[in-house]
């Protein structure tokens, strides 16, 4: 357990270090922006993994929390002033709104069986989409609006570091969260909810808290996303965002936390290159088709996702050479 | 001695069918009582009524004199009524140790702790390992539950039930679907639990030799009714029970209805 733990951390530390020095080595604006985007979607996908991978809840409405963060930050930066203070305040406000909304939605809907819950989340997120479209005085409807980002973020590199730090912090926090006794009960709920209940755990509490945590983190991702574009419109609330999060989590590996980060990287990069190819080959304007193929292949060959498959291989190799050590759990 | 568990007029109907009908029974603490009866006699339904999985149409369950009518299954488990399931019901993709550890965690009331790593709670793991040894599963701690044999899963189930440390254990056919070689091991486990002298055990079983060997008393359910309740000897000598098992009464009952 000890050695494995340290190797993992070392490996992740090296990657973070490489990413941290990257902007000093390369001055490619495209890459800085692309990586920033990957970091933001990694945060979103990790929050989705708490629901899908750890608690076994399928939500089709995760975009609503992402959208809440995006709109809260955009509206506050536009209406107040584009300063760091307002930016941080807007993140906190977005998180609070997401926490409240996810708490009440969870309390009302998480008693239902999983597929009914999935449908309800779809309906509720649809409601928020309509709200954003119709409440034109605040959201300017479908067209959306641009706003000024804080002066500090004018330099793309600064924002790159802010998102990287957020990613690392969120990862560390969520890793601790899922490895806590509370997180182990979430896994139990995923495996067999009725049994978890009969052990004396009130599973509804666990599911609601998991959805609040996921909602709050998704809202943070939304806030960062809005600032990265300096623009927001109703697309942040659409099903596409939820599907992106879902695909990133599944391709990367559900229930691994690091998987969604890998998934976000793979999907954003594929998207970038496939749409880039469109200049020479018009067929790639329909890059989403190829994306579908990539997705199908991933599910066939890596049903446990990239990280899940790698972990399984490593685990098999390890158990072949030596028996599982004492005190090692899961 | 005040009975630890008692039912009053316990009845449940599903539509026109009365699965459990006006059962009055009680048992003293630290006692092992078996429930026997042919298939469909309402034994598991009776268990479900005791554990709170089902709500009675009439009557009530009392645990230490307290009415359980308003309590959910979760609340009853916390009070001290633990049950095992006839169908093996474990966490299939988790290790044996993790299965038991979760049950110990529930007993220790570590429910909403989100900050410390779960491996820091060493006492939970140690206790889980002790229980795994008690049910003769040692050496299998790190096996994934779904890969255990049927008998081993039943043992795991019992370990999880013991981990909850409830005063009353409701064991629903712990040997169901087991091969003959596996049965003595389960028998050993139940005997060990009985010998600790701390638990009240209510056991549903079909294997008569096992029942006679273990039980302090036996109750017989037949068509949802309590047919007889007494010491193993009394039950063996009881003519109605003999008829029920030989089939005579069954036919009579059919003729009546």
Task: Outline the secondary-structure elements.
The complex is a heterodimer of chains A (330) and B (257).
Chain A: H1 2-25, H2 29-55, H3 63-79, H4 84-109, H5 114-134, H6 136-139, E1 145-146, H7 156-178, H8 181-191, H9 193-198, H10 203-229, E2 231-232, H11 239-252, H12 258-277, H13 287-301, H14 305-321
Antiparallel strand pairs in A: 1-2
Helix pairs in contact in A: 1-7, 2-7, 2-10, 2-11, 2-12, 3-4, 3-10, 4-10, 8-10, 11-12, 11-14, 12-13, 12-14
Chain B: E1 5-14, E2 17-27, E3 32-36, H1 43-51, E4 58-63, E5 66-67, H2 73-79, E6 81-83, H3 96-107, H4 122-134, H5 150-163, E7 168-172, H6 183-196, E8 200-204, H7 208-214, E9 217-222, E10 225-230, H8 232-237, H9 239-246, H10 248-256
Parallel strand pairs in B: 3-8, 3-9, 6-7, 7-8
Antiparallel strand pairs in B: 1-2, 1-4, 4-5, 9-10
Helix pairs in contact in B: 3-4, 3-5, 4-5
List keywords for this structure.
heterodimer; A: 330 residues; mainly alpha; two-stranded antiparallel ribbon; 76% helix; disordered C terminus; B: 257 residues; alpha/beta; Rossmann fold; 6-stranded mixed sheet; 4-stranded antiparallel sheet; 10 helices; 23% strand
Q: What is the succession of H and E elements of chain A?
A: HHHHHHEHHHHEHHHH
Q: Tell me, briefly, the overall form of chain A.
A: globular
Low-confidence stretches of chain A: 321-330
- Helix tally of chain A equals 14
Q: Poorly predicted ranges of chain B (pLDDT <50, ≥5 residues)?
A: none
Derived from helix and strand composition plus strand pairing, the structural class of chain B reads: alpha/beta
Q: How many beta-strand runs of chain B?
A: 10
Based on the structure, what is the oligomeric state of the protein chains? Answer: heterodimer
The rounded Rg of chain A comes to: 20 Å
Major sheet: arrangement of strands of chain A: 1-2
Instruction: List the secondary-structure elements of chain B in sequence, H or E.
Output: EEEHEEHEHHHEHEHEEHHH
Find the CATH topology of chain B.
Rossmann fold
Structural class by SSE content of chain A = mainly alpha
State the end-to-end CA separation of chain A. 10 Å
Largest sheet of chain B: 6 strands, mixed
Radius of gyration of chain B: 19 Å
**Strand arrangement across the biggest beta sheet of chain B:** 6-7-8-3-9-10
**Biggest interface in this structure?**
A-B, 30 and 35 residues
Note the overall shape of chain B: globular
């Amino acid at each position: 357990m000890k050695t494995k733990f340290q190797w993992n951390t070392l490996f992740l530390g090296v990657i973070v270090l490489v990413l941290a020095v990257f902007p000093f080595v390369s001055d490619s604006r495209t890459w800085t922006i692309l990586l920033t985007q990957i970091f933001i979607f990694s945060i979103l996908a990790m929050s989705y993994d708490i629901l899908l991978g750890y608690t076994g809840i399928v939500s089709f409405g995760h975009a609503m929390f992402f959208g809440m963060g995006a709109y809260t930050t955009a509206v506050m930066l536009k209406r107040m002033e584009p300063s760091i203070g307002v930016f941080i305040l807007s993140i906190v406000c977005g998180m609070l709104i997401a926490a409240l909304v996810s708490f009440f939605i969870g309390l009302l809907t998480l008693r239902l069986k999983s597929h009914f819950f999935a449908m309800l989340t779809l309906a509720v997120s649809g409601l928020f989409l309509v709200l954003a479209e119709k409440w034109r005085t605040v959201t300017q409807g479908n067209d959306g609006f641009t706003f000024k980002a804080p002066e500090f973020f004018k330099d793309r590199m600064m924002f790159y570091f802010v998102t990287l730090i957020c990613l690392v912090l969120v990862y560390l926090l969520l890793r601790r969260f899922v490895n806590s006794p509370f997180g182990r009960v979430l896994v139990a709920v995923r495996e067999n909810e009725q049994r978890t209940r009969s052990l004396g755990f009130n599973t509804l509490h666990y599911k609601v808290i998991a959805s609040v945590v996921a909602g709050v983190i998704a809202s943070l991702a939304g806030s960062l996303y809005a600032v990265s574009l300096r623009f927001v419109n109703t697309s942040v609330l659409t099903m596409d965002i939820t599907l992106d999060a879902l695909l990133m989590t599944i391709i990367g590996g559900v229930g691994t936390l690091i998987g969604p980060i890998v998934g976000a990287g793979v999907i954003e990069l594929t998207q970038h290159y496939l749409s880039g190819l469109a200049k020479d080959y018009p067929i790639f304007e329909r890059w989403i088709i190829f994306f579908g193929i990539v997705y199908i292949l991933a599910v066939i060959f890596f049903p446990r996702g990239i990280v899940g498959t790698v972990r399984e291989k490593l685990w098999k190799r390890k158990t072949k050479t030596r028996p599982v050590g004492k005190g090692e759990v899961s | 001695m005040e009975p630890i568990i008692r039912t009053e007029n316990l009845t449940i109907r599903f539509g026109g069918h009365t699965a459990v009908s006006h059962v009055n029974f009680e048992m003293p603490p630290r006692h092992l009582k078996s429930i026997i009866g042919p298939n469909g006699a309402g034994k598991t339904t009776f268990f479900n009524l005791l554990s709170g999985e089902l709500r009675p149409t009439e009557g009530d369950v009392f645990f230490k004199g307290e009415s359980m009518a308003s309590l959910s299954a979760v609340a009853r488990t916390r009070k001290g009524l633990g049950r095992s399931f006839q169908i093996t019901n474990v966490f299939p993709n988790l290790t044996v140790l993790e299965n038991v550890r979760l049950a110990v965690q529930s007993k220790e009331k570590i429910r909403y702790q989100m900050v410390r790593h779960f491996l820091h709670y060493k006492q939970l793991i140690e206790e889980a390992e002790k229980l795994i040894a008690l049910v003769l599963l040692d050496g299998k701690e790190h096996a994934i539950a779904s890969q255990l044999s049927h008998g081993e899963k039943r043992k795991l189930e019992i370990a999880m039930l013991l981990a909850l440390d409830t005063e009353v254990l409701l064991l629903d056919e712990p040997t169901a679907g087991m091969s003959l070689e596996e049965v003595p091991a389960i028998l050993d486990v139940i005997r060990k639990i009985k010998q600790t002298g701390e638990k009240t055990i209510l056991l549903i079983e079909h294997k008569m030799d096992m029942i006679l060997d273990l039980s302090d008393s036996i109750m017989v359910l037949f068509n949802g009714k309590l047919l007889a309740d007494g010491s193993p000897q009394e039950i063996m000598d009881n003519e109605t029970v003999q008829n029920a098992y030989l089939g005579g009464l069954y036919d009579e009952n059919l003729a009546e209805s």
